[in-house]
Design goal:
two-stranded antiparallel sheet; seven-stranded mixed beta sheet; alpha+beta; Cathepsin B, Chain A; 240 residues
Length: 240
């Protein structure tokens, strides 16, 4: 997904990455970087955001991800997308299932994580020695983790890219069902930039308001049904 470096542009990397993926964009990592740069520039130059404030205030208000998606939906004409909001906001399992539907269709989802929760994730996957491939952040580690006094980030946005159901036992222990995410901190983070969190932990994050998910879909082509109807009519005339 690229490396945001010291820039606080995780929201742009994540939103742009999902938009490009769900709309079928293909390209190299360098081309992706260019698309993300164009997306950041585009969002920054919009005169107003979804609440009528100057576009640059997206960062200050802390609603970077959702505002960026809604602005892209309303004003970005290069990639036609739509934001699909979850209905069951108070039921964590239904809320998660709403977004897992995208994964079943091989579409990515944007995940927005609060700062102290990201500290836990970052601590787990950055602790040396490096975690083995396929390691899963589980409830035990989260329970034992002591929150840091402060965090540099107001939050962090990543991309939800897959789900894994584990039925087989490994060393006498069954791995928990988990969700896989992609980060914008480069290939040194986690497993080549990817990391896994148990589904139960993700549900706890959602219930406590520490993780929000955003579903983006490709907008339907307008006036698609009308030409098909005309074609059917022509076909009937030929048969007659």
């Amino acid at each position: 997904m690229g490396d945001q470096g010291e820039e606080k542009t995780c929201w742009a990397y994540s939103v742009a990455h999902v938009i490009l993926q769900v709309t079928g964009w293909k390209g190299t990592n360098k081309e992706l970087e260019k698309e993300v740069e164009e997306f950041v520039k585009f969002i920054s130059e919009i005169d107003v955001d979804t609440e009528g404030k100057p576009g640059e205030n997206i960062r200050e208000e802390g609603y970077w991800v959702k505002d960026a998606i809604l602005i892209a939906e309303a004003f970005h004409h290069k990639y036609k997308i739509k934001f699909v909001e979850a209905e069951n906001l108070n039921d964590a399992e239904k809320y998660l299932n709403h977004h897992k539907e995208s994964l079943r269709k091989k579409r990515y989802v944007v995940a927005d994580i609060c700062g102290t929760t990201w500290d836990i994730i970052e601590d787990f996957f950055n602790t040396k020695p490096k975690k083995p491939k396929g390691s899963i952040l589980g409830e035990d580690y989260v329970r034992e983790y002591k929150e840091k006094k402060s965090t540099e980030w107001d939050g962090h946005a990543v991309v939800l890219i897959g789900k894994h159901s584990h039925r087989k036992m490994e060393d006498g222990v069954k791995k928990p069902n988990c969700l896989e995410f992609k980060n914008s901190h480069g290939p040194t983070f986690g497993d080549n930039g990817k990391f896994r969190i148990s589904q139960d932990v993700v549900l706890d994050f959602i219930r406590s308001g520490k993780m929000d998910l955003y579903k983006i879909e490709k907008a339907e082509e307008e006036d698609k049904a009308e030409p098909e109807a005309e074609h059917e009519a022509e076909h009937e005339e030929v048969v007659i």
